[in-house]
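Before the break, one more example. Copy the sequence into your notebook; we will annotate it together after we see the structure.
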Amino acid sequence: MDRPSLLERLRAFNRWTNSWAGSIAVAVGIWIVLRSYLIEAFRIPSASMENTLLVGDFLFVSKVIYGGEFEVPLIGFRCCRAPSFAEPQRDGIVVFRSVEDSTPNLNIVKRVIGAASDTLQMKHDTVYRNGRRLDEPYALHLGSHGDDPAQLEKIRAWQLPQYVGRDSAHYHPSTHDWGPIVVPPGHYFVMGDNRDESYDSRFWGFLPRAHIVGKPLIIYLSIATDPLRIRWNRMLRRPH
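Here is what the structure looks like once it is written out:
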């Protein structure tokens, strides 16, 4: 029996690699669609949502609830947004794309404090929505650092057009005292639960609805690093 020639071997190998490449391409395509429209894994990288969400928490995030959008990872290509089944709720937690040009593909998690037409104000770290004090058992105030003067000017600049107080000329907001301001249509105001360690709407402004990509469903894994261990007590917990 004649042994296959080198050319025949190369052809067989080429057919085998093409078959694997096609299978991998299909698998990657299915993964991208599922990640874009149904569910995505998300890791908490910072302490801005403590103690609700801890550094090292791994979440499943529902994309379908707020209308997923086809997205190719790494290159930032997006198109074909699906209709939503619900709108973000006040006091709920959302995952959204950064509004800043320097981090366009960064996903962030915060809590919705106000929606369109809400009047918001903070007095000595206490939030008021439409004149009513919010009961926020989740809010953490560590008082770890003061406000940077340059940052305060940035806060004042974006808040002034939405300010509805009596004396705008003497309005000088801080991260602890600001408002009243009104949330414009199609936008939300979000904050981290760890108020003194969160870079949120107080600094960069209102969050457009189009940037909201999902809602955290469940913590499927939680890993602490100091010391390295699994937080078993946080497994399968629903963030709220």
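The longest helix spans residues 6-37. The chain has three helices and 14 strands. Try to locate both features in your own notes.
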